[in-house]
Amino acid sequence: MANTWFESVAEAHRRAKKRLPASVYGALVAGSEQGMTLRDNIDAYNEIGFAPHIGDLPDERDLSTTVMGQDISMPVLISPTGVQAVHPDGELAVARASAARGTAMGLSSFGSRPIEDVVEANPQTFFQTYWVGDREDIAGRMQRAKDAGAKGMIVTLDWTFSEGRDWGSPSIPERLDLKTMARFAPQGMAHPRWLLRYLRAGHLPNLKTPNVDADPDPAAAPTFFGAYGEWMQTKQPRWEDISWMREQWDGPFMIKGVMRIDDAKRAVDAGATTISVSNHGGNNMDGTPATLRALPGIAEAVGDEVEVLLDGGVRRGSDVVKALCLGARAVMIGRAYLWGLAAEGQAGVENVLDILRSDIDSILLGLRRPSVRELTRDDIIVPPGFGEKLSSRTTGPAESVRA
């Protein structure tokens, strides 16, 4: 039997690219316009160095922390991502893997598996939603998540329906009927391992979104593009709408997509218990700086009032540690675990989490820190002008100044 273990997230990425049909892989990589933000999310980590110690290094290191009321084994969570057609088990494989490794999972309302099944696989599940539909629709969606046992609510606010990629957007069908299957057959035949997985599972990739509706009946679920179309037609939320959402949810409440200090403060005023510094993985407004650059100013401004998380560009345990040194409580990973899922299913996601855990532990040793909770800015080398302090004003036009 072939060895399925891989030693880096980069290797998971290579396997995913090799095994996935071009359109599926293209959707996974994503990005927008020139891909500046996509690249900067990764490149920013390379500008930060470490200041290691020798002697008196801790024999044992504690990686555990608490996020949104949940004790987790390390400061890495699963970020919510849409329809996971890279593997037949989709979100269920990710839920089982994250549960096995003792961490929490964010489930997208655009995910392909019902929240009831995902919570059963990982009770430490947070449900993510957008402002889609009217208040009755949104309240029903949130109530369903609560009834299913979701431990927290994530509201993502940073999507601007950006279209167009210089390298071309992948062709994604709305549904897999006979005509569509015939059109995509050459891609499937060129990647027999991916196709064989679905044949063994006895079903085709699921392109429906069963968590968008309050109705848990899978037959009533809209397609991804059906749900996306409704989202595009929904009027944009105001801050009072977000405050209303907070009132509907009596547990931990995260606002995801924060890149500015003034928005971070508004999120606190709206009742957020947690915010995620995020630019949607570079999938949105190209030219937005890396999340790591925006993190220090936001953490300094509101870190004493809410938990501050970060997502975007995390590929190594060293990335996690750098984010923690700059003020994050934990990070959320997206593409990294999707590559693991594409490469080896549940085992691949567990492999990715194990890589990050091992890396974090090794760096804690070198930094002479017995716990992730003791990391500080003194542990890293930050070049002058690194941080992006996006406006601290609560009203008025946008302003950006270098720290």
TrEMBL record:
EC number: 1.4.3.26
Residues annotated as domain FMN hydroxy acid dehydrogenase: 1-385
Keyword Nucleotidyltransferase assigned: no
Domain of life: Bacteria
Gene Ontology molecular function terms on file: oxidoreductase activity
Annotated Pfam families: FMN_dh
Leading EC class: oxidoreductase
InterPro entries xref list: Aldolase_TIM, Alpha-hydoxy_acid_DH_FMN, FMN-dep_DH, FMN_HAD, MftD
Needed cofactors: FMN
Keywords from the UniProt entry: Flavoprotein, FMN, Oxidoreductase
Family designation: Belongs to the FMN-dependent alpha-hydroxy acid dehydrogenase family.
Official protein name in the record: Pre-mycofactocin synthase MftD
Organism name: Gordonia prachuapensis
